[in-house]
Amino acid sequence: MSSYAFDTYRLLTPPEAAEWARTRLSLFSPGAALEATEIGDGNLNYIFRIVDPATKASVVLKQSGDTARISDEFKVSPDRNRIEHQILVRYNELVPGLVPRVYAFDPVLNLTAMEDLSDHVILRQGWLAGGSFPRAADDLAEFAARTLVATSDGVIDPKVKKALVRDFINPDLCEITEDLVFTEPFDDLRSRNDILPALKPFVEKELYGDQRLRLEVAKLKAGFLSGPQALIHGDYHTGSVFVRPDSTKVIDPEFAFFGPAGFDLGALAANAAFAFLSARAGGRANEAGDFLVRLIDRFVQRWDQLWATSVTDPSFRVPGYALWHRNQVLADASGSAGLELCRRTVGIAHVKDLTSIADLQRRLRAERASLRLGKALIFDRGRVRTGDDYFRLLRRAAGREGLD
Ligand code: SR1
Ligand code: MG
């Protein structure tokens, strides 16, 4: 029996979350005295960790509200929780072991129960603390290559794909990305950008004032708006990955929809660059540069292998197509990396890699390096294809700011 009714939508309190878990999941005994803590620190949702101190059994509940945590200004349908649940189920089939197990979904409360990964750390935090995660690059390249190839035209049945495109229509979260990634960093009209005062003149000249850049960004935005190439994670960054040295788990796929296949790889590459710049600004070394090179090269290798063995549509088996398509995906990845570098530096949603740089001058240099790299990856995207290509541009941007 439950002392709370769970028949109407509302945001749960920790005791209610514990009660939901006790009565709805077979993980806990009916009389268990569960402890619940709200542990979410992301921009959007509420996360409860529920533990049975007697058995040590635990679970994580993720609940969506109808506005973003970061700001009430973002009205976001709680239906994103259904999308997240649905895609986690799919990922458990496509890339078992690389995502949390899912236990239940409550469509009334917009809540998903999933594996507790408290023995892992968020990759961004792990790197900031000087950690090393030798499996991460290969696992994350594998995750991206497998999930993207499996949902690409030529591999997936066209009617199955159309049904999935419909199921994963995600207008509210796509709107966030369209605004925060593609529009606002390059145009101050809405004034939601959050820029270090000393960086402003650089941003005004190098982003808002660069018409050539804005044209390239417009082309990338058009691809995002009307390019349903593959089912993408949509927010594939180092804050969406839990790691241990021997394990990698991708979380938070609530931004998923059918979009440009290069988008995920690019976002992750950019976040590796943030970790590299952060370490350089702090006078530390870390593995983010090696990770970046390995991520890209391993992705290309696995994409080519998977494409060659899984394409069934004869049109896409014609000689030359595989290479042409893969290089287009890599160009989009480079462009997306550039966008992510710009938006996390000047937009409303920052990254700790930059904001935690205590010395203001060093932070400024890291932020300028990020924007220089972002622009280079957007302009040169047709030529950026290997890990070395990324690393060369990263070293050059860092070098121009004395961070090499
Ligand atoms: C209003 S949400 C801001 C950002 O947080 C999410 O993690 C996404 O990256 C989004 O762009
Ligand atoms: Mg997230």
Sum this structure up briefly.
50% of the residues lie in helices and 10% in strands. The chain contains 14 helices and ten strands. The protein has helices spanning 14-24, 80-94, 123-128, 136-150, 158-167, 171-183, 200-208, 211-225, 263-281, 288-310, 321-346, 352-355, 360-379, 387-400; strands spanning 35-38, 46-51, 58-63, 102-106, 111-114, 121-122, 230-232, 241-244, 247-250, 257-259.
Notable characteristics:
404 residues, alpha+beta, globular, binds 5-S-methyl-5-thio-alpha-D-ribofuranose, binds magnesium ion
What ligands can be seen in this structure?
A: 5-S-methyl-5-thio-alpha-D-ribofuranose, magnesium ion
Please give the order of strands in the largest beta sheet.
Answer: 1-2-3-5-4
Coarse shape: globular
- Computed structural class: alpha+beta
Radius of gyration: 21 Å
Strand content: 5-15%
Could you tell me the mean pLDDT?
96
Per DSSP E runs of 2 or more residues, the count of β-strands stands at 10
What letter string, H or E per element, gives the SSE order? HEEEHEEEHHHHHHEEEEHHHHHH
Relative helix content: 40-55%
- Quaternary arrangement of the chains shown? single chain
Specify the biggest β-sheet: 5 strands, antiparallel
Number of helices, where a helix is a run of at least 4 consecutive DSSP H or I residues: 14
Indicate the low-confidence ranges by residue numbers: none
Distance between the termini: 62 Å
Description:
The protein starts with 13 loop residues before the first helix and ends with a helix. The protein is an alpha+beta fold and 404 residues long. The protein is built from 14 helices and ten strands. The longest helix has 26 residues, at 321-346. Strand 2 and strand 3 (58-63) form a beta hairpin. The chain is globular, with a radius of gyration of 21 Å. A five-stranded antiparallel sheet has the order 1-2-3-5-4, with helices on both faces. The structure holds 5-S-methyl-5-thio-alpha-D-ribofuranose and magnesium ion.
